[in-house]
Automatic annotation (TrEMBL):
It comes from the Archaea. The keyword Coiled coil applies. PROSITE patterns: TPR. Keywords: Coiled coil, TPR repeat. TPR repeats lie at residues 129-162. Residues 244-271 form a coiled coil. This is Uncharacterized protein. It comes from Methanosarcina siciliae T4/M.
Length: 899
């Protein structure tokens, strides 16, 4: 309608409405009322809109009570109810609270009447919940706190299972509003007992509603609620403790609170909530120690030192705890200085207090500053007062500080909640298997182009599609866009004209099986290793002895073993980009020397694995990319030594049967870190430690992101591993070529002389003509003799298994380097051993093809080789069509000299 014709249009619509009523033409009447209501709303005639839409909604409701399935009346009812909501919203924003209340109650009365007959109707639940929430906020603004709480509580009663996106959002809002209202009421109350009642209610709501947030994976809201609940709990505790004058009794109250938080931690799996609980526990432990320190006649400085450590741990998670840390470290310095009260240097004490005051945050409570400033005054009067009176005064000052040190520990949470309710649209994030799911409560509120980004990467930049709006779901495949997250992100969501972005923190923990979580990082190794060619990889099968001690697996080593490891590395320095040693085969002590090798030769070394033990705990930071702490004890880690870089490591998530906890034995501690190694844009290598490879969840997380997966293992039964690898090759979970390398040891356990393991090998993508040769890459024992060797493999990234190409493609090339130890050769027979070594030297020095063939064809030489290496004997058969170098390649070896 053109401007200026609105009055005439309204008059005509009123006439049409009256005529439709007289003719009992309900369809025309409904259509006319709907148009008239929308026109009045656009003109801002709110009172008239409320009257017309209220009449219409009651009219439609009466019809729907008789026929709930009538879609035409349902749509008309929804339009008019939404108009009533809009009227209330406009009135509320204009500060016309009585009119807003009237509008909300009008719409609410109609929806509640319909909800009685259709309790599971999604629109009615969402509308009723929204009206109750808005009415609660309105009543709170009007100062009618109890009435407001009543509306929020009523909103929680209307939702039924199964819940939909919209109603999940409304219920979350009701819970957060109710908690916030109780905490705000506690701030306004002057009676401490009334304050404690409100805070107890807030904490109780938090506990009761945890299951809802877990069930519907509302991580952001759950964190807000948990923070608010813990904030209320600590405030309750502070007020309760403040009513107690006895420091010893206060300490006991803190201990009760600490036990409650620790119990909450035991039930918790979410890392973000665990951090929050840990910080709270540190704070409570610090408060407990402070009161224990003050309970004695003279403050116990050691307990105060321990308290300072706890506050320092708390401040690492929450900046507000910094107040407590600064206060108590300052107090500790002062008490250390005045410990001998008879000889207090007051000028020096004043200077110390001045320095302490300079360290306090600017927003610290003024009474804390005053309490510090007053401490020197006590000792200026020391000639007039007894020691007992001095201590009493000092205790009063300290107590004053103790009361004020950490008020509003979670004060920032109220700002977070305020920001949450001001968001233009509400969303939830779920991250799993490289995909970020963004679930919108009401995607219709996302207007225009949506930009989603992290600090330095745009993840999404377009309007939502019709299908995404209908499903309330947007899915971002990180692998498709080439984004590898680094543990945590803060993701921003913005649309054109939006005043503030919607912010959501996300922790990229991947769930693996039941109760296991890991972070998968990408480590950029694009530093000259394997540039623009096939990947050359060396899998080492070597002999060692492993044993258990104090719940960890250790390795028997000596100078000869170290020499063997370094000789192997020297042998492959020009033939491999990556060298993989078996699990448990490289101790921590060898890593600095291996790092030097890697730097000099531009070779990446997967240095087997080892258990983190207490004796080496403080040394990791010197050569690893991060420090190790007490919580890392008994982790089985695989160090990856990268040229010109600190060592990166993977942590074994799933222990083998022998590594697991049982009865009173502590087992391997589950790790939480896994790295993928990027050699270039089109080549990434994954790493799984032994038994981890059999876990389908973890494997399926890594396979889509990796071209090659290496598996260092100390494995007595590798057959299952190859069956799994072949199945993943033959029935690939995703497109692209893959190769799986098993680097197994040949090992003895404890004092048992039986040798286990072997069968190091590679399984890779082949085409239909070479598929039958798949087992050729698995080097199984010959005549049940397990031997040491290096399996060299050159893997083509460009191989196309679907069709042959004009370049004559080769999927994989392999080579063996046998490892012989002089001590072992002579242990069989010294004469035979000397003969074998001489034979190897003759083969290496031979320069004539026919002569070399005669050497190999000699039955005596064949028999000698078979004694010491059935594997080499197998490979020197049928040499007729080979060149000199090709024949030599069949018996390539390194000899480890005796000590």
């Amino acid at each position: 309608m053109q401007k200026g014709q609105n009055k005439e249009a309204l008059e005509e619509l009123e006439k049409a409405e009256e005529a439709a009523k007289q003719a009992k033409a309900n369809d025309i009447l409904i259509h006319t009322i709907n148009i008239r209501g929308q026109l009045l709303l656009s003109l801002g005639a709110l009172d008239e809109v409320l009257r017309i839409c209220g009449f219409a909604s009651n009219f439609f409701a009466d019809i729907l009570l008789k026929d709930p399935e009538d879609e035409f009346f349902q749509q008309s009812l929804q339009m008019n109810l939404n108009n009533i909501f809009t009227v209330g919203y406009f009135y509320q924003n204009a500060g016309r609270f009585p009119q807003a209340k009237n509008a909300y109650e009008t719409g609410l009365g109609i929806s509640l009447k319909l909800l009685q007959s259709s309790p599971q109707d999604e629109f009615l639940q969402n509308y009723t919940g929204t009206m109750l929430n808005n009415l609660g906020t309105l009543l709170s603004d009007m100062g009618r706190i109890e009435d407001a709480k009543n509306r929020y509580e009523k909103a929680l009663e209307i939702y039924t299972e199964p819940m939909q996106y919209l109603t999940i959002g409304r219920k979350a809002e009701s819970i957060i509003r109710l908690i916030e209202l109780n905490t705000e009421q506690a701030e306004k109350e002057t009676n401490p007992y009334n304050q404690m009642k409100c805070l107890r209610e807030a904490f109780q709501i938090c506990k009761e509603q945890q299951e809802f947030f877990i069930k519907y994976e509302r991580k952001h809201e759950r964190k807000l609620v948990t923070e608010a609940g813990l904030s209320a709990y600590i405030d309750f505790l502070m007020k309760n403790v403040r009513l107690e004058n006895n420091s010893e009794k206060r300490a006991k109250e803190y201990e009760k609170a600490l036990q409650a938080i620790e119990k909450l931690k035991e039930m918790e799996e979410d890392e973000t909530i665990l951090k929050l609980c840990s910080s709270t526990a540190c704070y409570l432990r610090g408060r407990k120690l402070v009161n224990e320190a003050l309970a004695s006649r003279q403050p116990e400085l050691e307990l105060l030192r321990q308290a300072v450590e706890q506050f320092q741990n708390a401040k690492e998670t929450y900046e507000k705890a910094n107040v407590c840390f600064c206060v108590y470290i300052g107090l500790l310095k002062i008490l250390e200085d005045v410990n001998e009260l008879e000889e207090v240097n007051v000028p020096k004490l004043k200077e110390l207090v001045k320095k302490v005051l300079e360290t306090l945050p600017e927003d610290v409570n003024p009474s804390i500053r005053v309490s510090f400033e007053n401490i020197p005054q006590i000792f200026e009067e020391k000639d007039k007062l007894t020691r007992k009176e001095l201590l009493k005064k000092l205790d009063e000052r300290v107590s004053a500080i103790e009361y004020k040190a950490l008020e509003n520990f979670f004060g920032h949470i109220h700002e977070k909640i305020k920001d949450y309710f001001e968001e233009p649209f509400s969303l939830n994030l779920i991250y799993e298997n490289w995909k970020l799911e963004v679930i919108f409560d009401d995607p219709e509120k996302v207007k225009g182009k949506l930009t989603i980004k992290t600090v330095n990467r745009i993840l999404f930049n377009r309007a939502l599609s019709k299908e995404e709006i209908e499903k309330h779901l947007l899915e971002i495949d990180y692998l498709k866009i080439g984004y590898f997250p680094k543990g945590e992100d803060e993701i921003t969501f913005t649309t054109p004209g939006q005043k503030k972005p919607v912010l959501r923190p996300i922790d990229y923990f991947e769930s693996v099986g039941r109760g296991n979580k890991t972070r998968i990082f990408q480590c950029d190794c694009c530093n000259g290793v394997c540039v623009d060619r096939d990947l050359k990889l060396a899998a080492v099968q070597l002999k060692y002895n492993a044993y258990g001690e104090n719940s960890v697996v250790k390795l028997t080593t000596d100078d000869a073993y170290r020499q063997k490891v370094m000789t192997i590395l020297d042998a492959v320095k020009d033939e491999a980009d990556i060298v993989v040693f078996p699990e448990f085969s490289i101790p921590f002590e060898y890593l600095e020397e291996i790092q030097k090798f890697a730097d000099e030769n531009e070779v990446i070394v997967v240095a087997g694995s080892h258990y983190v033990t207490e004796g080496k705990l403080g040394e990791y930071g010197k050569i690893f990319s991060r420090e190790f702490e007490e919580e890392d004890l008994r982790k089985n880690i695989s160090p990856v030594v990268i040229p010109s870089s600190k060592i990166v490591h993977n942590e074994k998530l799933l222990g083998a049967r022998e590594e697991r906890e049982i009865y009173f034995k502590e087992g391997m501690k589950a790790g939480k870190i896994n790295h993928i190694f990027k050699l270039r844009d089109d080549l990434r290598v994954g790493l799984m430690i032994c038994y981890e490879y059999l876990n389908a969840d973890l494997r399926n997380h890594l396979i889509p992101a990796c071209d090659v997966i290496v598996v260092p293992q100390t494995n007595p039964s590798p057959k299952r591993f190859y069956e799994t690898a072949k199945n993943d090759i033959n029935n690939p979970p995703c497109s692209g070529n893959r190769a799986y390398i098993m680097a197994n040891g040949i090992f003895t356990l404890e004092k048992n002389e039986e040798t286990l393991g072997g069968s190091t090998g590679i399984v890779s993508t082949l085409d239909k003509s070479t598929y039958g040769q798949q087992n050729e890459g698995i080097i199984e024992p010959v005549d049940e003799v397990m031997e040491q060797f290096i399996l060299l493999a050159s893997i083509s990234k460009d191989f196309n298994p679907a069709k042959d190409t004009q370049v004559g493609q080769i999927p994989i090339k392999t080579k063996l380097i046998h490892i012989f130890e002089k001590n072992e050769i002579f242990s069989c027979s010294e004469d035979k051993g000397k003969q074998f070594i001489q034979l190897l030297e003759t083969i290496a020095e031979c320069k004539d093809r026919n002569e070399l063939r005669e050497i190999f064809n000699s039955e005596e030489n064949k028999a000698t080789i078979k004694i010491f290496s059935p594997l080499m004997h197998k490979h020197i058969q049928n040499l007729e069509e080979l060149t000199l170098d090709e024949m030599k390649k069949k018996c390539c070896c390194i000899l480890i000299l005796a000590e």
